[in-house]
Design goal:
Length: 205
């Protein structure tokens, strides 16, 4: 999906809000996964649409980003910790106790940057103490969970990537929107379909 399709659909979601600043949260933007790429693409797209964008990363595994982020995006690391190589006790502390401290801390940045929309790219941010007038959106990248997730009800909108399981998601949240992942630019080069090579790509973990 291209940027124009994304633009039309995201405007539908934030329609009614006088949006100037969008704040995006995720676990660690320095990692190399698909979720991190989605955040970078989102931030760059929002910037190109004229919005101010702030990214809040809970943790910081690496010193630099794997994906190219527009220099106009404000990037803030809420901590310098990393879950990698942490022992079981420290991981428990970072995932359970410290994480919710950071969730509370995010409200300070929402107010400071006069944010109108908060987009949670993963489950690390839970708006337990929502600010009135702010729209909270959660992006769900995985298959529909088998059981209801209580944390989802803290968000106004749940964005999923496909219509495939929309009937299941509607049982989990009252306001579901579908916006497939997009790529910033559609490649102009057409593959040679006469080749007999087959390539399969998937996660190895």
């Amino acid at each position: 999906m291209g940027k124009s399709y994304f633009k039309v659909n995201i405007i539908k979601i934030i329609n009614g809000y006088k949006v100037k600043t969008i704040l995006i949260t995720l676990k660690d933007i320095t990692e190399e996964g698909g979720g991190e790429r989605v955040v970078v693409n989102l931030a760059n797209a929002f910037i190109s649409m004229g919005y101010n964008v702030v990214i809040l990363s809970f943790y910081k595994k690496n010193q630099s980003l794997f994906y190219s982020l527009d220099s106009r995006v404000i990037l803030i690391f809420l901590s310098s910790y990393s879950l990698v190589n942490a022992n079981i006790f420290k991981k428990f502390y970072l995932k359970i106790i410290y994480r919710y401290f950071l969730c509370f801390k995010i409200n300070k940045f929402i107010r400071y940057y006069k944010t109108q929309v908060v987009v949670a790219n993963d489950g690390w941010f839970v708006p337990l103490f929502k600010i009135i007038g702010i729209k909270y959106i959660r992006i769900w990248h995985l298959k529909a969970p088998k059981k209801k997730r209580f944390n989802l009800f803290f968000f106004h909108t749940l964005v999923i990537l496909s219509n495939k399981e929309i009937s299941l998601f509607k049982k989990l949240h009252p306001n579901i929107k579908v916006i497939p992942n997009f790529i910033p630019e559609i490649p102009l080069e057409v593959s040679n379909l006469d080749n007999n090579n087959v390539l399969s790509v998937g996660r190895m973990d």
